[in-house]
Amino acid sequence: MSGSSGWVLAGVSLVKSHIRRQAWPAALQSCAMPKEKDQLGHHHTFVGSWKRNPVQSQCCAGIFQAYAQHESSEPLFFCGAAEDILTEFPAESIDFTMTSPPYWGHRQYSGGGVGLEREPAEYIAALLRVFDQLHRVLKPTGSFWLNIGDSYRDKRLLGLPWRVAIAMMDTQGWILRNAVVWNKVKGGPDPAPDKLRNVHEPVFHFVKRATGYYYNVDAIRSTPQQAQIINGAVVSATGVSGVRYRRQIELSTHLSPSEKERAFAALDAILDEVRNRKLADFRMIIRGQQRATHSDSELVSGRARDLQAYGFYFLRYHPNGSKPSDVWDIIPEDTQDRQTHFAPYPKDLCRIPLLATCPEMGIALDPFCGTGTTNLVARHLNRRSIGIDISDEYIEEAVKRCTMLL
Q: Partners of 144 in the beta sheet?
């Protein structure tokens, strides 16, 4: 980004960047030196009105409030321990959270922090303290997406992702909506002669309430194929014309004459929907021809009951395209151009969560932001964002990435 040099706030130090100074609210334009380490375990940097004898425990809260009024997708970064800084954020103030915390026992990240605990239980407890604060600051309509990797100890796969997820549900009230499998497609060499290579990680989608959270499913649908008219007959996006279904109805020995009449009429009606672009595609399930999806038992399947009662039912495909599945094939980030962070997750991993569950110009938060991938993608998608990391080296790299020309 062009413009004069300015300062981006960091919890421990001031990080110089090339953000246009005039783009920030007045409260964020002038800076002062950080005070001594407070009782929360991190330093504050005071800016604007807060440098006049500020109340130490209100520093981050005041800066957050100023940023919340800032109508730009330029991110805000704090440097310090996530648990400490989050305690000062106001309740129910964040629209979206996504993060990938340091993995336990894999490597030492710059700045230390979470992941260096001696025991897995201590690691889980440290994460839960941060996630408890996330639950407090997340709006009731918000979502939390968590990517977390597993670890081995004494040849035992510890199951850390699910241990964390279950503890979040059991002790903090999180509701799990999806457990996405991130298939990395390729992985590093694995010399172990007695196990398979590990090439996937989970991405959990949590919410605070079962219904009423923000979810824009149309923003993540794939572009649908279009129906066609061929020789005067309507053909669905995948080639369904109804001819085969008409033949099956006509020859069926499992349908009564009245059921056949209703089935023909229903088939004509749904083909009209395809012709009028109200439906992209469909499948017809006919008694005696196709099995009910999921289960043939009328006790557990409503579709099985429909098949028994009416002789047929339809599977309708949304005209705006299909939703993504819960298996994502995404190649990991290439770190050759970024030497400071050894495990950044790929930008594509953030796109679906941000598009689906963070409103435009909403505030996204990454409490273990590393070099700012979540913040970078949020900016490209016109969302505001806040990043927190304990490493000033990572924060400096994040600032550089997020202030480059778009």
A: 97, 206
